[in-house]
Specification:
Belongs to the glycosyltransferase group 1 family. Glycosyltransferase 4 subfamily. By secondary structure, the protein is α/β, with parallel strands linked by helices. The chain is about 40% helix and about 20% strand. The strands form four sheets. It has a seven-stranded parallel sheet, with helices on both faces.
Length: about 425
């Protein structure tokens, strides 16, 4: 089997890129030939150094680094980017069995779908966000700091000043969504959801005979070891971009109210205001290996209090794998992995609820019990790279069987059954 993994970056600069890179590696280790198409020029993660992975750069640039008028037009339909993608696919020495798309919003635009469908290949897309349905991509209203309840592209949706940047960006994104719906019309697309909440929410937003929905957990690249000792840690820790929609401000407020220090690893627009708070330490971005070395020694628990319907922040899974309790927003897809009161707490992203959860973690013995249970339950059914790859391969085989398409295995045509 030969799979093309298409993403905009080849380094783990965010959750989607991290999953794309790790998926490619997991597939290669499972014996699948992988071509990794990197849309935007830049470095590559060492995980992509594998005999079964061929990496190809498309030479694109980030749309939003281009002049404003050019960015707006290319965001709607980047014909040149689509042409480069098509040429790269046509130049492959072995025709792929399936194309797995992880990102398309930073350089590829909706034109990516026309280039993919024109090749007559099955296309699967992992839904790391809501861009296939929602113009601003997160189904969240930045103007009201609350999840959206509007029907995407309805009159009320188009009129809503919900974009995190400006009304102009909203108009461009509405235009992009219209172009996207046109590109997807009457073409089959297999959708891979990373959490049960995404299946329910996006399944309701993306309906029709062209869509087929699948469910696969994200990979968690954590080596099994002894659980951390959260009783020794003192801080409520947060890892990620420091924004309101991800709830970074809620962590600082609730930790202070609970009498615990707050530790932030990441950067973003709230950084200056967080640094100004007493009892708050901001370390900035850290190398992946350094993150968990820090947290295993200093964290009492990990907080992921997203205000938006986040599909599955990887930090939650990694914390459980390390034996650290998690306090997760009940709006986050990852909360389905947290057993309330057993491995952590699932709460609304509100100061009072978070304060109560953090205060409960002030009891060192309870934190220790929660951490031990988190570690035991996670490793009873871990989301390892090999488990993730096996689940993906099963999805690919179902897709190929449904299309009646032959698949290639070790350079030979094999049955899709």
């Amino acid at each position: 089997m030969h799979i093309v993994v298409l993403a905009e970056f080849a380094v783990a600069s965010g959750g989607a890129e991290k999953v794309a890179v790790e998926s490619a590696r997991g597939l290669a280790e499972a014996g699948i030939d992988v071509t990794y198409l990197q849309a935007i020029d830049g470095p590559a993660d060492p995980l992509l150094d594998h005999a079964r992975i061929r990496r190809i750069g498309l030479g694109n640039t980030d749309i939003w680094t281009r002049p404003a008028h050019r960015a707006a037009l290319d965001g709607l339909w980047d014909a040149a980017g689509a042409a480069r993608l098509g040429a790269a696919l046509d130049a492959l020495p072995v025709r792929p069995d399936l194309i797995h798309l992880h990102q398309w919003t930073r350089s590829l635009s909706p034109s990516v779908f026309s280039a993919l469908f024109a090749r007559g290949l099955p296309v699967a897309a992992t839904l790391h966000d809501y861009f296939l349905a929602c113009p601003n991509g997160v189904y969240y209203r930045f103007d009201t700091a609350a999840p959206c309840t509007l029907k995407p592209l309805s009159a009320s949706c188009i009129a809503a000043p919900c974009d995190g940047r400006s009304r102009l960006h909203k108009l461009v994104r509405v235009g992009r969504s219209v172009a996207l719906r046109t590109a997807l019309k009457e073409h089959p697309l297999d959708l891979i959801h990373v959490c049960d909440a995404s299946v329910a929410r996006m399944g309701a937003l993306l309906t029709g005979p062209g869509f087929t929905h699948h469910r696969v957990d994200n990979p968690v690249r954590v080596e099994k070891g002894p659980p951390a000792d959260p009783a020794r840690g003192e801080a409520i820790a947060y890892v990620g971009r420091l924004t309101r929609e991800k709830g970074a401000d809620l962590v600082a407020e609730a930790a202070g109210a609970a009498g615990l220090p707050a530790l932030f690893i990441g950067a973003g627009p709230l950084e200056a205001s967080l640094r100004a708070r007493p009892g708050v330490e901001v370390l900035g971005w850290q190398a992946p290996d350094a993150v968990w070395d820090i947290l295993r020694h200093r964290a009492r628990a990990i907080a992921a209090p997203s205000r938006w319907y986040e599909t599955g922040p990887l930090t939650v899974y990694e914390a459980l794998a390390n034996g650290l309790p998690v306090v997760a927003s009940d709006r986050s897809g990852a909360c389905e992995k947290v057993v309330d009161g057993v491995t952590g707490f699932t709460v609304p992203p509100e100061p009072e609820a978070l304060t109560r959860a953090f205060a409960a973690l002030g009891d060192a013995d309870r934190a220790e019990r929660l951490g031990a249970a988190a570690h035991a339950r996670y490793w009873a059914a871990p989301s390892t790279l090999s488990a993730h790859a096996a689940a993906l391969i099963a999805v690919y085989e179902r897709i190929l069987a449904a299309r009646g398409a032959p698949r290639r295995e070790s350079g030979r045509i094999a049955s899709a059954a």
